[in-house]
Design goal:
mainly beta, twelve-stranded mixed beta sheet, six-stranded antiparallel beta sheet
């Protein structure tokens, strides 16, 4: 008697998934005939599981094609979380990870496949990449190659993804300066404070016993491995949350609608500008810090100036570094807290003067103290026609621009110092200062400390918004517009008061404990200088003429791809804010099919252009 197990499997990505198991019993001679046949069938099926790698993996984010070999700080956790196969240079059914340790340009044989994968909505990732390598990738994808890290240091992970025409970026900053030997206290060293107020740092000498009235600081509860796992977990959360990102963008879209005018007669925006969203993970020393930059831009054809509206939002959580030691009723130690945040500092600025008298048109939030919530919001207005950011702009509309946006957030025990324009006239900057832990229960020889404010040791989510105005001469001819953004955090240390018979002999002390500053280079999309008020025009079979309007700050030419489609003017100068009306004539369609033509209006001095599809029916 023999037993045969039949296992139904499904090959999914690089995994074999067991679907079902059936058990049968056979006599020995039956087994001898069945087993070879089953094995042969199995080999045949497995041989058919290959293919050219173009089968759709369903867009799963735990599988990817690989170029090179992971080698940076995150190599281990990337390999642990993402199953990777070598890239053939053609397939577009998976995300792509570029991990070439040669620090040179991406091999040309991969360019087309990478570009098509990006256009198909796949996430393109780079591991342990220099800014020059990231910009090389952005150029391949046709995006603004203006990324930088300030110190030109590599980033641990970079990713870009396009969803519904919007570009989303994610950056994990490199933490090479986070030396674990510096972060973790030496086990042979006691960081303490005696009840008589002597030096807080004491290293035991040979044979010396640390007295019980000294306060020992705890060892931080994180390791290099846990840091990398946390960074990877946050990235996977981002990459898997496409719907959340689009919902957030939609919420921004609704609040920014007023920025982009009243469409003809509708009072609403006819077509929204393409948005750019950058997520920067600048977590350090086990503390989680994530920054987001969402920007919108438009051009005032009346004033010939560019307007940039930027929203900087953050999710900041230093909780892993906060520690608290109570003195106790017998005051065997003094109360101690450390690792809570004392202040966050944000600075955003151009490298040089934007060339206008008031480059910082609006900024928020303003100074605030002793309040529980604040609302960050900016607004501005323009008259005349405007252009929009993005590859498919809509313009030629006469309603002007009304921009308005606001966001409220919690500021319990936080003082907001709006330092914008206090140094450079084009600097948008804020300082968030937290209250120190207050005095707690008083004992005969010491006093406890109240817990540091909750927002200083847990999630804090500030939102900074501002509007920049720049002259057209400030534009970068290569399109590489960007601004610098500095983020700095400073943690604190608080030692409780010492008492003599319940009378304070030395007050509680509060001082800076640790700090770090990162500088980022955030790309901005320059708004177009030439826009049309439509992207599609439909004509009947009999032929007819129709009008459309262009608004241009530059000289232009116009042409049509088909001889049956004629455009009234082939060239012109800058139109100013009033725009110019052009006529398109489609001749009689004598064919038996529908037909299309493309009208291109393009600048003679810049890369700006507008494209209109002309459709003519056969009926």
């Amino acid at each position: 008697m023999g037993v045969l197990f039949l296992v139904s499997i499904e090959v999914k990505a690089a995994f074999i998934v067991v679907k079902s198991v059936a058990v049968f019993t056979f006599k020995e001679k039956q087994m001898q005939r069945l087993v070879p046949a089953i094995l042969l069938s199995g080999l045949f099926l497995l041989a058919g599981c290959g293919g050219d790698g173009n089968n759709d993996d369903g867009g799963e984010n735990n599988v990817a094609y690989l170029i090179g070999s992971p080698h940076g700080d995150m190599a281990g956790v990337i390999s642990k979380n993402i199953v990777m196969d070598p890239y053939n240079g053609r397939s577009t059914n998976r995300n792509i990870l570029i991990a070439d340790p040669k620090e040179n340009a991406i091999d040309e044989k991969y360019h087309e496949g990478i570009r098509k994968s990006y256009q198909a909505g796949r996430t393109i990732m780079m591991e342990d990449a220099l800014p020059s390598e990231i910009n090389n990738l952005l150029e391949i994808l046709g995006l603004n190659p203006a990324y930088g890290t300030g110190a030109d240091a590599p980033v641990a992970l970079f990713a870009v993804e396009q969803i519904n025409g919007h570009d989303f970026y994610y950056v994990v900053a490199n933490d090479d300066d986070d030396d674990m030997d510096d972060i973790l206290p030496d086990p042979e060293q006691e960081i303490c404070k005696t009840s008589d107020g002597t030096d807080a740092m004491k290293e035991p000498q040979d044979g010396e016993v640390v007295e019980k009235n000294q306060t020992k600081m705890a060892k931080p509860a994180f390791t290099e491995e846990s840091i990398q796992e946390g960074r990877m977990a946050r990235f996977m959360s981002w990459i898997n949350d496409e719907e959340g990102r689009m919902n957030e963008l939609q919420a921004n879209k609704e609040s920014f609608d007023k920025m982009f005018l009243k469409s003809e007669g509708s009072g609403r925006l006819k077509d929204f500008a393409e948005a750019s969203s950058w997520d920067e993970d600048v977590s350090s020393q086990g503390k989680n810090f994530r920054l987001n930059y969402t920007s919108y831009s438009c051009h005032s054809f009346k004033n010939d100036q560019d307007f940039y509206a930027v929203k900087q939002s953050a999710v900041l959580n230093p909780s892993s570094g906060w520690h608290k030691i109570e003195s106790g009723k017998n005051c065997t130690t003094l109360a101690l807290q450390y690792g809570h945040m004392r202040r966050y500092i944000f600075k955003n600025y151009w490298d040089s003067n934007p060339g206008v008298a008031s480059p910082l048109r609006d900024h928020s939030p303003l100074n605030a103290n002793n309040v529980t919530t604040v609302t960050s919001g900016v607004s501005f207005s323009l008259s005349g026609n405007v252009g929009f950011e993005g590859s498919t702009p809509v313009g030629g509309l006469s309603g002007g621009v009304e921009f308005s946006d606001s966001k409220s957030f919690d500021v319990h025990d936080v003082t907001i110092n709006d330092t914008s324009a206090s140094g450079k006239a084009w600097e948008a900057s804020w300082k968030y200062v937290f209250k120190n832990p207050g005095d707690g229960t008083r004992y005969c020889a010491c006093s406890e400390l109240e817990d540091a404010p909750l927002l200083s040791r847990s999630n804090f989510s500030p939102v900074n918004e501002w509007v920049w105005v720049t002259s057209r001469n400030f534009r970068k001819p290569n399109g590489k517009q960007s601004f610098k953004s500095e983020f700095e955090w400073v943690t604190g240390r608080s030692d409780g008061a010492g008492n003599i018979f319940w009378v304070t002999s030395n007050d509680a002390t509060h001082k800076d404990y640790d700090s770090r500053k990162v500088t980022l280079n955030i790309p901005l999309e320059q708004p177009p200088l030439l826009v049309a008020n439509t992207r599609q025009m439909n004509f009947t079979k009999a032929g007819e003429s129709k009008d459309f309007t262009i608004v241009s700050a530059v000289p232009w030419t116009a042409s049509c791809s088909e001889s049956w489609c004629e455009i009234q003017a082939s060239s012109g100068s800058a139109t100013g804010s009033d725009g110019k009306v052009l006529h398109i004539t489609a001749n009689n369609n004598n064919s038996d099919s529908n037909r299309e033509a493309t009208v291109i209006i393009k600048s003679t001095t810049t890369s700006d252009k507008a494209k209109i599809t002309v459709f003519q029916s056969k009926f």
